[in-house]
Design brief:
With 325 residues, the chain is of the alpha+beta class. The chain has helices spanning 3-13, 57-69, 97-100, 106-123, 136-154, 161-179, 218-224, 233-250, 258-285, 296-307, 314-321; strands at 22-27, 34-40, 43-49, 77-81, 86-90, 183-186, 195-196, 204-205, 212-215. It is globular, with a radius of gyration of 20 Å.
Length: 325
Amino acid sequence: MPERLRELNEWLGRQPGLNGYKIAPASADASFRRYFRVSFQEKSLIAMDAPPEKEDCSQFIRVGRAMRAMGLNVPEIVAENQSLGFLLLTDLGSRPYLNELNEASVERLYGDALGALVTLQVCGHGAQEILPPYDRALLMREMELFREWYLTRHLGMNLTPEQNRVLDDAFALLADSALEQPQVCVHRDYHSRNLMVVNEHNPGILDFQDAVLGPVTYDLVSLLRDCYIEWPRERVEEWALGYHELALQSGIIQEEDEAKFLRWFDLMGVQRHLKATGIFARLNIRDGKPGYLGDIPRTLGYVKEVSARYPELADFHKFLLQLKT
């Protein structure tokens, strides 16, 4: 038995009420975290294994408690040992949105997810003191993942000064757009693999530990232009403008300018999808996880589609079309 799993079992054995438990993998993660379903007496909990030399549980705990205080359905912490990197959590089940979304369910499931997002953005001011800012430095570091891991390492490109200038100009434009938006509590991975279909208080929300104070459209575009499932542009924009109306009614935003909101939404998506493309390449090259490579065409496809519609991204769009992917 691997050492970490042995340590986890020893820790679980010391928890009250888990007599005769059985443990099985629940899900993997793009980070170094692993999750196990702990079954006992016709009940189940989730054990999180976050090696302390690679992961820090403390922000997961702080953000999770803050989100529960907002009334969001995130896992409750049953037991914790931060020095070992183990948490025991309530189980939100095994029905991710990605497996449940279809024509019959999408309006209801997205309606629930957008309702929870309003709650996060309205009530998130109470969590601002524990959230780092989504500042220009972070936005730029994320986009640099695209240059380093996708272009240079995955495609093997030796970028010319002119190509680097095109990238620099595009990154600056995208960061400017993000920073001019109203700043709210941002989950940062609000998509179909981290939202769970549950019978009560849908959705269950996972993977929130990287939350920040950032642009109002970030989580919205994560959900509606998901790296793992795609919907027609017209439908996405209809949903986005529906959220714009909710945000106005809730006081999240003040401007009744749909065109500006869609521009924020579009450009925020480009920033996020460049980051995601770089991360998917890094997961393969650095971490030996090639499973995300199949999501790059969809993710980069969003970037190409949006950049084609904005004259200020014309040079960047031309650059993307020349890539030998």
